[in-house]
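User: Predict the structure for this protein chain, please.
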Amino acid sequence: MECRRAAGTRKELASGHRLYGSKGTHLLGIADINTAPPGAGYAAGLIPAGTIFVTANDARLNAVRPYRGYGAINSLEDWFNSNYNSMQLSVQKRFSGDSLLNIAYTWARGMTDNQTDRSSAAQNFYDRHGGEYGPSQVDRRHVLTANYVYELPWMKDQRGSVGRLLGGWQISGITTFSTGLPLTVTTSGVDPGGLGIMGTSAASARPDLVGDPNTGGARTLLQWFNTAAFANVPAGVYRPGNEGRGVVRGPGYARWDFSIFKNIKLSETVSTQFRAEMFNVFNHTNPNGVNVSFTSTSFGQITSYRDPRIIQFALKFRF
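Assistant: Here is the predicted structure, written as structure tokens:
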């Protein structure tokens, strides 16, 4: 659904909104089709009661896999689904000359039961839809973008040497704010459900979710989310971890890009343009990577950052 309105000739205001949705079926994804059923290894007595499968005895599960005697079999299958829904709002204001302002906002929700087509298989093959359904790895719930161009109003005709010096200036910029991407916590070295997903399997184990990871955390570089919201599967319970996909929200994003242009008319058909462009002009720190490995000593910490301030200059000659 979309609506727009505009009025005037030189100065006009246009606004619009749109509801957009899409559905994906039979999407390509990877699955370990030789995963042992949860608990089958324990029922068969492959390890003593009260212990859990670890890497050293993972091969014992080959006796209870669907294709017996073999380990992991990572296969590309067209079993998966996705859906995307969004509300998109936009406003544009044109001023006299070349000045304008655009503002766009998107609220969106993207969901899927498979994150990628060649990695990140379902933890539990036998619950590969319900257990894996969650936010897409590119799901950003809120995105706000504003871009503008402002032509300084004095001495536009650039008459004389003073006009060429003081006229022809233009500023522009892009400002972007967005919420963080979903993250999934994984663990390693243990397989409490006896699934056989260690070694070469494209699947990875997950811990239990025992709280809200997005509340109670300090949101600092050393603890971005509430790490106490995760725990190992209790001893003597032979099942996969119950954490879903994308339960942690990563860092948001804020950036201001700014440019200054100086246009100089040399003749009716010849001109030059000087450009000074600054990306992330305020040098705002944007955390990027987060350690989501439950067994790591730096679990929950920020591991990387986006680009700092970058400044570049350019000179154009037009004829």
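The first strand starts at residue 2 and ends at 5.
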